[in-house]
Specification:
Length: 243
């Protein structure tokens, strides 16, 4: 399955989500912005060529508790749809899996770059922007596929605090994100592997492996997170007034 096809399955119209009825009281609305800060072809290949950095749709989860509900580092990927997100950029399975789960207040995905009418991957210079609601005591977790990989994804090491006590916070979330390897397919060189979403003929084309979720490291590790993406949060009312 191509990355573009997976994006269209995940969110052809841009964004969707589910929230519990109990999630309405005392909420603050936040604007989350995800920028692909690269220009041109950033990934340098062993062939002396280059490839663009592409990010797949962004999954978001508002939740309670002090652990990321998507995965646990050092343990195998859970059967909650994260494998499809990491391998194909398809957020549908994990959204459906987490909806109604214990501790999950709201879950959804966004896949429509700013200025476009339909969903698509986040190519160089493009941005996603969407809104979420949360109340004190609730946290945010994010996940998005590193598009030029077999099974890599960005996510937060620890749940992202949206409040300091009862006070909502805003700022740059990028330092809280890391690049993870889901451990479900044998890695190929980013931007070149034939079994990666932009080039594979069908889903699950790569060589399976059964490794634990871990930070990406080694010879194919891409540039630092901040050189590829920027994720910021603002209060929705402030984002509107600033325009």
């Amino acid at each position: 399955m191509s990355l573009i096809r997976a994006v269209s399955i995940a969110a052809a119209l841009g964004s969707f989500g589910f929230a519990t009825a109990a999630a309405q009281a005392g909420q603050t609305e936040f604007t989350i912005r995800v920028d692909n800060v690269t220009r041109g072809e950033t990934l340098k290949l062993s062939t002396a060529g280059a490839a663009p950095f592409v990010l797949a749709p962004v999954l978001w989860v508002v939740h309670t508790g002090n652990t990321n509900p998507l995965f646990a580092g050092g343990r195998p990927v859970q059967p909650n749809g994260l494998e499809q997100l990491a391998e194909e950029g398809n957020t549908d399975p994990v959204v459906k899996s987490l909806d109604g789960s214990s501790g999950v207040v709201a879950v959804g995905a966004h896949a429509r770059p700013e200025g476009q009418l339909i969903g698509g991957p986040l190519t160089p210079g493009k941005s996603y922007e969407f809104r979420i609601k949360a109340a004190p005591g609730q946290f945010l977790s994010l996940a998005a596929m590193f598009g030029q990989s077999n099974d890599w994804f960005y996510s937060n090491d620890r749940p992202i605090a949206l409040f300091n006590g009862a006070r909502p916070v805003a700022g740059d979330l990028t330092p809280q994100l890391a690049l993870w390897d889901a451990g479900t397919e044998v890695d190929e060189e980013p931007g070149l592997g034939p079994n990666q979403a932009p080039r594979q003929k069908a889903a699950n084309s790569g060589t399976p492996e059964q490794e634990s979720v871990a930070h990406v490291s080694g010879r194919w590790a891409p540039p630092a997170v901040s050189r590829l993406i920027r994720v910021t949060v603002t209060l929705a009312s402030e984002a509107v007034s600033a325009r």
